[in-house]
Queue: 2 jobs
Job 1
Amino acid sequence: MKIAKWNPAEFIDTKEDVIAHLEVALEDGDMEFLLKTLGYIARSEGMAQIAREVGVTREALYKSLSPEGNPSFNTVMKVLDALGFRLKVEQKVSA
C-alpha cells in the first residue's frame, strides 16, 4: 500500500479558502503556523509567480516560508499583497 503525502496546497481552490486559512493562522497567533499557511497558499497560487511579485527568488521564498524561515514583516506583507490580500486590525472582543 502506497500512501501519498498530504499537501494542503492542493485543496486551496478559492479566495474563500485562502481567507479561511489565513484567519485561522492569524487567530492562532503562532508565527510558524502562519508561515506554513502562507507557504501552502503561495504554492496553491504558484510559488514562482508570487516570488516574482515579491521580488525574491522562488527558492528564497520557499526558505522564508518554511519552519526554519524568518522572513521580515515586510516580506510577509508583500506575500499577502501578491496574493491579493491585506491585513486589517480589529479591536479584540473581551469575554
Note: The CA atoms of residues 30 and 36 lie 10 Å apart.
Job 2
Amino acid sequence: MFDRITFAPQILGGRACIRGMRIPVSVIVRQIANGATWEEVLADYPDLEREDIEQSLGYAAWLTTDEMHPA
C-alpha cells in the first residue's frame, strides 16, 4: 500500500521515512500543510520524487481514519 514509506529502528528511531532515507514523512507533510508547493519540497530535498510526496500525504490521511489497526 505504501511501498515508499519505510520503518527501520536504525533510521530516525523507526519513524516513518521515505525509502530508507533520513527524510521523515512528517517533515514532508508539515511543509505541505504550511503552504509549501510540491516543487518547493522537491527543491529542498533533491532525492525526493513526486511519488514520495503522494505517498506521504496518503499515509498521513490513512493515519487519521477512524479504523483501529492492531500492531
Note: The mean pLDDT is 94.
